[in-house]
Amino acid sequence: MKIKDDQKYDRLIQAAIALLATGGLANFSTTKVAKQAGIPQSNLYIYFKNKQALLDTVFQTTIHTQSVAVVAELDTAAPITIQLANSIKTLYRFSQEHPQIVATIQVLMADVQLKKHLHLKQDDHENQQIQTLLTDGLQAGILRSTDLNLIRYFLTRPVFNYAAGVQSGLYPDTAQGLTDLIQMIMGAILQPDVYQEWLS
Amino acid sequence: MKIKDDQKYDRLIQAAIALLATGGLANFSTTKVAKQAGIPQSNLYIYFKNKQALLDTVFQTTIHTQSVAVVAELDTAAPITIQLANSIKTLYRFSQEHPQIVATIQVLMADVQLKKHLHLKQDDHENQQIQTLLTDGLQAGILRSTDLNLIRYFLTRPVFNYAAGVQSGLYPDTAQGLTDLIQMIMGAILQPDVYQEWLS
Amino acid sequence: MKIKDDQKYDRLIQAAIALLATGGLANFSTTKVAKQAGIPQSNLYIYFKNKQALLDTVFQTTIHTQSVAVVAELDTAAPITIQLANSIKTLYRFSQEHPQIVATIQVLMADVQLKKHLHLKQDDHENQQIQTLLTDGLQAGILRSTDLNLIRYFLTRPVFNYAAGVQSGLYPDTAQGLTDLIQMIMGAILQPDVYQEWLS
Amino acid sequence: MKIKDDQKYDRLIQAAIALLATGGLANFSTTKVAKQAGIPQSNLYIYFKNKQALLDTVFQTTIHTQSVAVVAELDTAAPITIQLANSIKTLYRFSQEHPQIVATIQVLMADVQLKKHLHLKQDDHENQQIQTLLTDGLQAGILRSTDLNLIRYFLTRPVFNYAAGVQSGLYPDTAQGLTDLIQMIMGAILQPDVYQEWLS
DNA sequence: CATGAATGAGAATTCATTCAT
DNA sequence: CATGAATGAATTCTCATTCAT
Q1: What is D59-199's CATH number, 1.10.357.10, 2.30.29.50, 3.20.20.70, 3.30.70.100?
Q2: Matching Pfam families, A to Z (chains A, B, C, D) (predicted)?
């Protein structure tokens, strides 16, 4: 229950990520997590109220890690289109470097139960910054004037999917592939005329 | 082990879909499926070799159902862009009418284990037809010249996601919403100049 | 879940009684019951929905067994006072012969949780007969005109307690002891004048 | 291990009583007691050697509290029959005012394990006084000449049961009910002729 | 074919108790 | 003294699968 002291907390989260990435939710158990973390199973309950709390934490952590990675590379002085394209690139690089985190996010996003009682804490700094970028883009007439969640969907999930596909061999690992992906996503989210302009 | 006899086979698949749609893979068990189908647990093994075989079948079935629905509405005589846009519309309507099937597809698509040993049988008629449409679009310079799997991804997953979002209240249920979605997807998959043309 | 086939069901109940009688509710576990019954623990769930269902059944069974024993010896032709005194004697003998059943009843009666969701099925034949005896006694002006539950309490619990006390050595095991007990109970439940008459 | 220091000791006992009264022995744990008392779990072991020691203490405490309440109202100058009747009344009032204490006593009295290694310390002042009252009554030919424990049983347990029954709605909460109860108990424990006399 | 029963493995939790700080 | 952390045992229950009838 207490998060206080040590690295065991982190070990558990890392173990959970590894487990979720390779086995999915169906094969996820506190027993396995604990074993992977090299910790007696019952100790897991010192750090997390229950299995669900661990999953919640893993979800928040992975999402946050990814947000941080994207935001860190953001050049807020640059034009919005540039920022958007760069954020895709950054996210792709992140996905390549941390495939387990991305796999975990995908697995958890698909969970029906998780969705029910879990609302992403939208209040962290990094998320705010991305949200700001998008609302700015919207107001500047750069982004299509549709639901922001939908735009975010296009900005992230195809990237995750592509990165996973590259890793599994479904997609070829070429520079052109990423370029294509970016153009597709931009074509989806930008206002048509802005997209034309951005292309050149 | 044989599929021969009866409607219990279908009952099991329907039960599995309902279960997966509402509880996800983690809550899926042969016990529950059998109970939901009103069939003795052990009888499940008459129709399916094991749990995994049931899941495989469910995956094939749901994917196939969806393909059939899309293809059924396809007007092969129409211009490719029209066919594409219509297929999105059809798929969206299908998702609205069969939310459980779509939820099941999403859940199973996210499963890491399933991916490993499961290759979609690409040989059914409906899939061929869609594949043909896409290769035609590619060769005609209508679609972006990138991996067909990626184009298929853009053609389906955002639709599933949007439909689910509408149902959960995340997205508003307006005609404009669907129009936006179609334009986004088309913007993603069409060659830019074709897209411009299609817009008008 | 199914009670159908065999003696394992009974073995489990007997094991539960033995366990409750010697260890109380706090030491009662499905693990121990199953072990005592010589059955794999998980098999317990074939016969009982869960632990509580087993306890409920044990409660009903023990209560019923005791009712049957008392009613079996009842001479419905005899005067009511005689019947009452005899039922006490019978109950005492039963308690001596089946100390575990009585101990189990006492243990379960004291359980706070059990009380909440458990209502004795008052509809069995034997219970009806006792109830009839008491209402008859009430209408004949033989029993004190107070709540029947209270009268039943006096007719049973002191007997259980006395029998247990005799067995544990708290009370001496003499014929006089039982006579005293019967007189006390009769003094409690009979109308004073009837009691006087009965005494002689 | 020492009782010395503080009110936390009492808090633990009160918490234990509350827990036993509402959940019974089966749901009793040091974890819950400590939480209810607002004390770190491990601190419980500062005040009590182990779980059993806590239960023993709770038993002694509740029994003692109840004895004190009864004795406090005792008018040793009054006739023994009056004292007995009054003690029942007092005990009933106590049971109404402290239902948790009474429930705890009942729960602990039913515990098989507790009985084994627990002998009430019969040496406290209040207990002596009650014992004196009873032996006096015995020698004066007022009480039936039977085991004193049995008489004590009749003097207390029906009262507890009745009070609990009133609270749970099993018995109606009327003045007549209490009067009936007292007459029943007196009928049980008094010599028949004394009882007759007491009635008038 | 159909099915109830069986079963060992694992699942999530809770617990009583100890110990180092 | 006080306390958070630790831990192994135990508990309830579910599961996937097999088998005898």
Answers
A1: 1.10.357.10
A2: TetR_N
